[in-house]
Write a structure and sequence with these properties.
Elements (H helix, E strand, L loop, with lengths): L7 H15 L1 E3 L5 E2 L5 E2 L1 E3 L2 H4 L2 H14 L7 E5 L4 H13 L5 E5 L12 E2 L7 E9 L3 H12 L3 E10 L5 H6 L5 E6 H14 L1
Helix pairs in contact: 1-3, 1-7, 3-4
């Protein structure tokens, strides 16, 4: 089954707007505590976008397009952040007639049944891209990369929904994989923030 892909640039613009409207907070006076323990004037909680029907439609198409030049067998990353992205991309790939498996990297190996850190139909030797919803230091992406290496996957790169452009996240990831891409950057969201506040 083949579906025509809509205008990618318009989809990116719409995704930036969704992230700005539902996932972004900014404070000039007080910082937000982040997962790595530091603080930042920016805060992103992307679940309201990654779990939204329109958000999944946009993310699925944009991830699929971003990886279209690669022969990818699977996409996934550390649960919970990567799960919705991977599932959206897998669904879109089926509609486009080029199926890509989604997979989940557990935060810890399960201690019963078949002990495994990765769930899904991906297998040793598969070519994969690691996904994440937000990259700051890159720690969760790097944890997923390590698990994928242990599972014997060929890692083509990593892709994030949002690159916070702080704490060397991009640089840390690029030291481990050949490619890193982000669908949305903090700079793009802040540009929209400043434009909206000028109008008020």
């Amino acid at each position: 089954m083949n579906c025509e892909v809509p205008d990618i640039e318009k989809m990116r613009e719409r995704l930036v707007k969704l992230v700005f409207d539902y996932s972004f907070q900014y404070s000039e006076t007080s910082g937000f505590k982040l997962a790595h323990g530091g603080t930042s004037p920016f805060y992103f909680n992307c679940k309201k976008v990654t779990l939204d029907p329109e958000g999944q439609y946009l993310i699925g198409n944009l991830v699929f397009e971003a990886l279209s030049d690669l022969r990818v067998d699977g996409v996934g990353g550390l649960t919970l952040g990567a799960d919705a992205l991977a599932n959206a991309a897998a669904y879109t790939s089926w509609l486009q007639g080029r199926p890509i498996q989604s997979f989940i990297v557990r935060k810890a190996k399960k201690d019963h049944g078949i002990v495994a850190s990765i769930e899904g139909k991906v297998k040793r030797g598969d070519r994969v891209v690691v996904l994440d919803d937000v990259v700051t230091t890159g720690a969760s992406t790097l944890q997923a990369i390590a698990a994928c290496r242990e599972a014997g996957f060929e890692i083509l790169g990593a892709l994030a929904l949002v690159d916070r452009q702080e704490m060397n996240g991009r640089e840390n990831i690029e030291q481990e994989v050949p490619m890193f891409k982000a669908l949305v950057t903090c700079e793009e969201v802040m540009r929209l923030y400043r434009a909206v506040n000028r109008e008020q």
